[in-house]
Amino acid sequence: MVIILGLGKTGLSCVDYFLGRGVTPLVMDTRQHPPGRDQLPAGVELREGLDEALLTQAHLIVASPGIPLATPALKAAAERGIDIVGDIELFVRETSTPVIAITGSNGKSTVTTLVGEMIAEAGLKVGVGGNIGTPALSLLKQPMDLCVLELSSFQLETTHSLRAAASVVLNLSEDHMDRYAGMADYRAAKQEIHQHSQHILVNRDDALTLPDVGEIWSSFGLDGNAYGRGEFDGELWLTLHGEPLLPVSEMKIVGAHNQANALAAMALCDAVGIPREPQLAVLRRFEGLPHRARFVREVNGVRWINDSKATNVGATLAAVAGVREAVKGRLLLLAGGQGKGQDFGPIQALLGHQIDHMYCFGQDAELLLALGEQTEQVADLDAAVAKAALDARPGDWVLLAPACASLDQFASFEARGDRFTERVMAL
What we know:
Layout: E1 2-5, H1 8-19, E2 26-29, E3 46-48, H2 52-55, E4 60-63, H3 72-79, E5 83-85, H4 87-94, E6 99-103, H5 108-121, E7 126-130, E8 146-150, H6 153-157, E9 166-169, H7 183-191, E10 200-203, E11 216-220, E12 227-232, E13 235-240, E14 243-247, H8 256-271, H9 276-285, E15 294-299, E16 302-306, H10 313-324, E17 331-336, H11 345-348, E18 357-361, H12 365-369, E19 375-377, H13 381-391, E20 397-400, H14 413-425
Parallel strand pairs: 1-2, 1-4, 2-3, 4-5, 6-8, 6-9, 7-8, 9-10, 10-11, 16-20, 17-18, 17-20, 18-19
Antiparallel strand pairs: 12-13, 13-14, 15-16
Helix pairs in contact: 5-8, 5-9, 13-14
């Protein structure tokens, strides 16, 4: 018996995978009305809750990334020796296509998208999915020369057969501390991406990305080594071993964090033989992903920026660093939501110089409020936009980079970013 835990888009792809192989799985979900319920094929049973007795009778359990392996029902099944995997494990067992595997606390989706576009620009068939867009198992239906997977720490917990052509942990900062015992536990989950990898790429500026196993192939960072940055004739360039590749001014995405993302994308493409020109063509035209440091509009000399995807402290620090050098006036930050047990201390260190004022809202607003005198609590995101609009002066920038998850007030970070954009457009 095969049991799939968790429905939604990924769960449906698992159901489709097994039905295509002549196996009718049983689906369990803790939610009363899980997304995808109406799309379940006839004959596939859906049960509410986790039936521990039934789980211990399965010969294979496919667990949603959102269900911790520490869940008692799963622990009981594991103790009986039942194989517990995720959809990524099923995919890598099945495919013979070379996989480029990308994880990290921040920047995963940007780098995954860049690498996918660079491969397509080179005229190859590419599948892009995993934690972004298309579920991995759905990619099996299309022809692929290469596959690019964005992988979360949750997905990597149940993936053991990955043999990536190239892999990277882009960066590491506190995230999901409500699920992991601490930073070391979280890092260990991320490092699973390097098991059996042919080319391991690391971030020179983040020692936590150094692998526990395997030999490092290359590195990227913001100095002049390997894939890096350098100054030529007064202009900053992306470089390889000190040789200029592309002026930063020709890229549409801005900020040091996006320069690091671009370097990582080029390195991964080099590892699988993608020519340089398609890489540079993509970097020249790529405008970034929605809700990631996206310019919304300028009102009365004030620029409004949507980085709702900044759902942890590290992402907020990157967003601030990315825009700060362009701000002529003050930087006003909108932050708050579900902090997921993070340490907000790194934000405190920026208050009063990098961040001039912070409007705090949502479930953990009081924790942010306590960071310093340059903070102010407001009722919600709408109130934060309204108050910032009153306070801002020409030359100021207002940045939504919440450092928190959105689920206390919104269905997703996308919904939060859309609401921010809507309110800014109404000013």
